[in-house]
Amino acid sequence: MITEIAPAPERVAAEPARPHHRRRAWDEVPRWQIYLPLSVYLLFTLIPFYWILLFALRPAGSTSLVPWPMTFDHFQKVWTERSFGTYFANSVYVGIATLLLTTVVALAGGYALARFDFRLKRGFMLALLCSQFVPGALLLVPLFQIFAELKMINSLGSVIIAETVFQLPLSMILISGFIRNVPYSLEEAAWVDGCGRLTAFRIVVLPLLRPGLIAVGSFAFVHAWNHFLFALMFLSDQGKQTIPVGLNTLMSADSVDLGALAAGGIVAAVPVVVVFAFIQKWLITGFSAGAVKG
Amino acid sequence: MAQAAAVAKPPAPPRRRRASATPRRLPYLLIAPAALLMLGFIAYPVISVFYYSLQNYNPTKPWRNGYAGFDNFVHAFTEDPQFWQTLTFSAKWVVVEVGLQLLFGLALALIVNQTFVGRGLGRALVFSPWAVSGVLTSAIWVLLYNSQTGITRYLADLGIGSYGTSWLSDTSTVFPAAVVADLWRGVPFFAILILADLQSVSKDLYEAAEVDGASRLKQFWHITLPHLKDAIVLSTLLRMVWEFNNVDLLYTLTGGGPAGETTTLPLYIANTSVDAHNFGYASALTTVAFAILLFCSIVYLRLSKFGGETK
Question: What DSSP designation does B67 have?
């Protein structure tokens, strides 16, 4: 059932070409019934993307509907004057640290859940599932107090921990699913060959987990990159803030600089797009591996 | 994955090795980091919320701090119109959003599940807003909705509506405007999940139905929909919880305004605690929100038959 939660976008793309016993041509859905609604929906999807590009690339005050003459002034402004350069570095730091911490901790826990039966296992699984329903947004105040106690307010560490904690449950459930897909006998064979459990895991299991780990890690990164509330609450120092907080600052200004906002938005989107483009082929295998269990 | 827990093998068999000499403690060591993090940063905060819900606690008015019993709850339910207003708005927001997302997501999934030229690209484009963050979604729609150079200006050029219209600051248009912005990002979520589930419908069923002369609508009603039922129920519940909790979009797009028109319960809680420093009362409201979510969780766990699958 967990697979229902798993964002499994491209799994379907991996399906083999449906061969011969497809429906006969005369019974196929009329083409216009596909292309017409699809085009309408595509307009709805793509106009907003075009709109932000338009604003980012056309000069301030222009009302042209094509970004011409093209200017990169907005990007320069947002990067230096509005400190998006700093925000970008902070976001990258938070994203990568969250990715590493989430993956390592979830890998350990996921292995335990996949390979052992232990007394607290069911309780632990239940806690993992229930934690899906605990919203970070409602825990802001106690979390703030905890981080204040730990003297971590205004340090990126607080955001990294908070993002990791709320990423962990799902990551762990997914990873344990991936590990279950690796036959236990492979590990046992490695033990027989004289490997310790850790070595066997490293040599036999870890390489097979790579697609799944990349999928889980990239989601942790993207989530930490996109998430806003923790950074807003725990980081008051301007030099410590992240990209979403910077965007919010641009939006809540008295007179919004639309060009800068659009450029900032694109700066925020680029890493996500790059990550997805780069990992797409891993996502297909990664999530289909996790989803097989259905 | 539901049945997968049953596959878990017992601990290392007798021919164990040095490294696996402590299999009894090993799983606990392995889950310890995760368990500690979750205890410290989820369980403890939850408990402290329960504790403070029974307290008057406001750092700016320390002389009033102390045990309050159920005063906070009584206040919420009997004396605070804003609580009811935000709760009602939350319900309306969740039902409208999830309903429309499901409807459009289902339609979209059925369309891109067909075989047609350009399907791969079509899917990629249609699903793309899914990875966009709430804040970025807000930024995009602020650009679209702004009164000077937004979409209304160009509509006015065409003679539709009037110049200077700002959908986000008008109480009569802010709700649909926010709904559309969130739909833009939310529909792909359902479309992706439903499309994934559509892949496992047996082709034979359709063929048999066709032999029997069932129309496409009948096939959808009697084959596709029953097959999708579980996926739809679960993703709808998850999305409801998510939409209830999510404050990114409304916080940045409307700020809960105009005039508190789009303040959800979680936004109200955030304002109560962050701006008004009324931690005790905010905690009580959080507890109420938890109770609502707990109800959803129980329904969710029931429906997903959790606990039925292990052994």
Answer: E
CATH of the domain at A97: 1.10.3720.10
Domain-located, residue A32: no
Q: Are A45 and B255 in contact (CB < 8 Å)?
A: no
CA separation for the pair A258, A264 (Å, rounded): 10
Peptide bond into B258 cis (omega under 30): yes
Record the pTM. 0.81
pLDDT band, very low/low/confident/very high, at A12 (cuts 50, 70, 90): very low
pLDDT digits (tens, 9 = 90+) for A218-238: 889 988 998 888 898 888 888
Query: How much of chain A, in percent, has pLDDT values that exceed 70?
Result: 85
**CA nearest neighbour of B193 among A4, A42, A218:** A4
Please report which confidence band the pLDDT of residue A244 belongs to, taking 50, 70 and 90 as the band edges: very high
CA distance B272 to A141: 10
Range 163-222 of A in CB contact (< 8 A) with B: 164-166, 168-169, 172-173, 177, 180, 184, 188, 191-192, 194-199, 222
pLDDT in tens, A143-157: 988 998 999 888 999
Report the sign of the C-alpha dihedral through residues A237, A238, A243, A249, in that order. positive
pLDDT at residue B300, rounded to an integer: 67
Closest residue on chain B to A1 (Cα): B2
What is the Cα–Cα distance from A34 to A32, expressed in whole angstroms?
Answer: 5
Secondary structure of chain A: what % helix, strand, coil (to 5)?
A: 75, 0, 25
> Top-level CATH class of B87-265?
mainly alpha
B108 close contact with A: CB closer than 8 A:
yes
Please count the structural domains in chain A: 1
Q: CB-CB: which of A15, A49, A112 is closest to B30? A: A112
Per-residue pLDDT reduced to its tens digit, B225-239:
888 887 888 788 888
Q: Is residue A63 situated within a structural domain?
A: no
Q: Which of B41, B112, B130 sits opposite A146 (nearest CB)?
A: B41
The arithmetic mean of pLDDT across residues B190-202, rounded, is 84
pLDDT, average across residues A249-278: 86
* Radius of gyration for the alpha carbons in chain B, expressed in angstroms and rounded: 25
DSSP state of A238: G
* Long-range contact set of residues A226-229: C-beta below 8 Å, sequence gap at least 24: A226/A272, A226/B132, A226/B133, A226/B134, A226/B135, A226/B136, A227/A163, A227/B133, A227/B248, A228/B133, A228/B134, A228/B135, A228/B248, A228/B251, A228/B252, A229/A136, A229/A137, A229/A140, A229/B247, A229/B248, A229/B251
Q: Is A247 on the interface with B (CB under 8 A)?
A: yes
Residue B187 CB burial class (10 angstroms; 0-12, 13-18, ≥19): buried
